[in-house]
Design a protein that fits this description.
Elements: H1 3-20, E1 25-29, E2 39-42, H2 56-81, H3 89-106, H4 110-127, H5 129-142, E3 144-146, H6 147-154, H7 163-181, H8 203-207
Antiparallel strand pairs: 1-2, 1-3
Length: 210
């Protein structure tokens, strides 16, 4: 199986998660360079003013999304070919770093986080597999496409379901509140928790496919 075909599915996996989360893609490419076999470049808007400090809940949400995004490329290869090619180390490092941060914020085990992150990404990719294949085919044919072209290729897609992860995110918020108040508080259910994502946080996984 050609490396280019694997790369097309790999980048399509990343791109689908970005599109599902509403992150603007600048370009998606399977043209190799000195650093990678392919890449997804996200649009990074610089704020007019420095953003306020992140809460534990917001930081947890950002890191969780980073992990889901990073693991999606490798998972797309596994779905398509039953195995990923060698060369996913950068994504794996991004996933591990994000999960370690979340582990420290929530106290949940890294194994549990890793399992849930993979489950969320896998469920989305399998439920949207026709769109993943269409995007991979477009990348294989055109080599490099704009974010607009990628969106056009996949058409209407479902939203990313992060519900399995919101309980732990709520727990991070409760721990932060407990530290500030000096009292132990139980984490409540926050099924409607939004997941703010700073686009710059996704840059390592977005740009490297090595």
């Amino acid at each position: 199986m050609s490396s280019e075909l694997h790369t097309a599915y790999h980048e399509a996996g990343h791109a689908m998660i970005a599109l599902a989360a509403g992150l603007p893609i600048d370009t998606a490419s399977i043209i190799p360079d000195a650093d990678s076999l392919g890449r997804i470049n996200l649009v990074h808007d610089l704020p007019a003013q420095p953003p306020p400090p992140l809460t534990a809940e917001q930081l947890t949400a950002i890191r969780v999304f980073e992990a889901v995004y990073a693991v999606a490329g490798e998972l797309a290869e596994e779905i398509a070919f039953r195995a990923a090619t060698a060369g996913c180390e950068c994504d794996q490092q991004t996933t591990s770093a994000a999960i370690e941060t979340v582990d420290g914020l929530t106290g949940a085990s890294s194994w549990a986080w890793r399992h849930t992150v993979r489950e969320v990404a896998l469920n989305y990719l399998t439920s949207s597999w026709d769109a993943v294949c269409l995007l991979a085919l477009v990348l294989l044919t055109e080599k490099s496409v704009s974010g607009e072209r990628a969106r056009e290729a996949v058409g209407e897609i479902g939203t990313l379901n992060l519900q399995p992860l919101t309980g732990a995110i709520a727990f991070a918020a409760a721990r932060e509140a407990a530290r500030h108040s000096g009292h132990v508080q139980a984490a409540g259910s926050t099924s409607g928790t939004s997941l703010p994502v700073r686009h710059a946080e996704c840059r390592p996984a977005a740009q490297l496919r090595t």
